[in-house]
Amino acid sequence: KEERSDSGAFELFEPALRANLKQRREMELDLKAALDAEEFELYYQPFVDMADKRVSGFEALLRWRHPEKGMISPSVFIPLAEEAGLIERLGVWCLETACAEAATWPESMTISVNLSPMQFKSATLLSDIDRALNNSGLAAERLQIEVTESLFLDESDRVLDILKEMRRRGLTVSMDDFGTGYSSLGYLSRFSFNKIKIDQSFVRDMGRAENIAIVRSVIGLSKSLNMQVIAEGIETEDQMRALLAEGCREMQGYFFSTPQPKEELPRVIADITNRWTRDLGVAAEKT
Ligand code: C2E
Ligand code: MG
Ligand code: MG
Ligand code: MG
């Protein structure tokens, strides 16, 4: 079971990794072996719809259980996988696994999968998605794709075309970590997103007037552009209530649940549903 704070192992390992090229090479070799040895796992963190008082879906978050080094954070190994040319294979594995898992959930629940900008260079991204949907039998409408603003570093028609194709298939395309990147607001309309994820850095200190102002304007923007909005990184009841007061109905964060292995999801859903029928439902009704 995942602890509240990302495990100390991540933090100990990270600085050493940056410093040591030899270790990076070793790790890249480990990654290759890990794909064959099935050392990767997906954890799932719920999206909570406060208005409907239900779990609306889950985000798949990749974990690497290294035989000697323990759990390694995706923010460490994904850049390495990109560098080692392994991100395509890893990405396909994530799509296949996440869709197969989501196909076992109630139909009202979506699955959100993070894509690295590098996956957009793959000639087979769209057919990989189609195959994951076909193999699992999951409806395209239940698959959400999360991309970050870094996707637009090398702005190309190709990226635009792929995003359009995703939308044409009925997928939901979300802009992750919104507000932390390089993006000009122009991307939001030009690249036809369905959904904005307000980054946790703005949620963390909602007591600060500046952060409330940013959250408020992002929610306003999403409404005027006819996009869905979700806030990530909610850790406290105060943050949840502040967001609710701003009219944000979908939320995600440790306050509701940390990312969990698939075996735990029935318990996660039951926990959240039970909390709702108690006190939290009252707050949701007021908005
Ligand atoms: P992200 O997609 O923005 O995911 C949110 C990160 O914040 C996750 O870290 C999640 O565990 C963490 N988080 C969730 N709620 C809270 C909270 O209340 N407080 C705090 N402090 N943190 C919270 P994680 O799992 O370590 O993933 C880090 C990043 O790695 C992700 O950021 C995403 O960009 C990337 N990533 C994860 N899985 C995949 C994957 O399958 N493929 C790709 N390409 N990238 C992935
Ligand atoms: Mg994400
Ligand atoms: Mg994020
Ligand atoms: Mg992130």
Question: What features would you highlight for this structure?
Answer:
287 residues; 11 helices; binds ligand C2E; binds magnesium ion; EAL domain-containing protein
Write the layout of secondary structure elements.
Layout: H1 8-19, H2 21-37, E1 40-49, E2 54-66, E3 70-72, H3 74-83, H4 87-102, E4 110-114, H5 125-136, E5 143-147, H6 157-168, E6 172-178, H7 186-190, E7 195-198, H8 200-204, H9 209-224, E8 228-231, H10 237-245, E9 250-251, H11 265-286
Helix pairs in contact: 2-3, 4-5
The structure holds ligand C2E and magnesium ion (3 copies).
How is this structure best described in words?
There is one protein chain. With 287 residues, the chain is α/β, with parallel strands linked by helices. The protein is 47% helix and 18% strand. It has helices at residues 8-19, 21-37, 74-83, 87-102, 125-136, 157-168, 186-190, 200-204, 209-224, 237-245, 265-286, and strands spanning 40-49, 54-66, 70-72, 110-114, 143-147, 172-178, 195-198, 228-231, 250-251. Strands 1-2-4-5-6-7-8-9 form an 8-stranded mixed barrel, surrounded by 5 helices. A hairpin with a 3-residue loop joins strand 2 and strand 3 (70-72). Helix 2 (21-37) crosses helix 3 (74-83) and helix 4 (87-102) runs parallel beside helix 5. The longest helix has 22 residues, at 265-286. The chain is globular and about 50 Å long. The chain binds ligand C2E and magnesium ion (MG) (3 copies). Residues 24-273 form the EAL domain. It comes from Jiella pacifica. This is EAL domain-containing protein.
